[in-house]
Design goal:
The protein is an all-alpha fold and 151 residues long. Helices cover 75% and strands 0% of the residues. The chain has 5 helices and no strands. Helix 3 runs antiparallel to helix 4.
């Protein structure tokens, strides 16, 4: 089949769009511009995530300073902020395993949830959340070992 825009032997646009095997061609310039554009948008969003995380951490530190008390939930929240910054760093520099950081963030978030709500939660829910942490930890370990063996 010819690229879109070339004579399709009398076929209408609707016929070409309905044809599932049709694959539009993209020029090298268009591909380069799109690639650069998406790269710039990605970097801007990563910077925005980093700034929002730093603002959240600063707000939490200020709150700790005002109350003059630190509890386990505050420490776990600081770990969450640290892991988000680490994930942004890995995405920005391209060094490291980017897929591991969201798993670490999920583990820390679940641990924080258990710490904060364990008094009000049914025991089976705590077991479910602890099982989720175990499953995430096994997944992180498996992914780390797999990435080391393949690359």
């Amino acid at each position: 089949m010819k690229p879109f825009g070339e004579n399709q032997a009398g076929a209408s646009k609707e016929d070409i769009v309905a044809d599932r095997s049709f694959k539009p061609t993209v020029g090298e310039t268009e591909h380069t511009v799109a690639s650069i554009g998406f790269h710039v948008v990605e970097r801007i969003l990563l910077l925005l995530v980093a700034l929002m995380t730093i603002c959240g951490a600063a707000t939490e530190i200020y709150q700790i300073y005002q109350t003059r008390s630190i509890n386990l939930a505050d420490i776990l929240l600081m770990f969450l902020y640290t892991e988000v910054i680490g994930m942004v760093n890995v995405f920005y520099t391209g060094k490291g395993a980017t897929f591991i950081y969201p798993i670490f963030i999920a583990i820390t978030a679940l641990a924080r949830l258990i710490v904060l709500q364990s008094k009000d939660m049914a025991p089976e829910n705590i077991v479910f959340e602890a099982s989720a942490i175990l499953l995430l930890a096994v997944a992180a370990m498996a992914m780390t070992r797999l990435s080391r063996s393949t690359g």
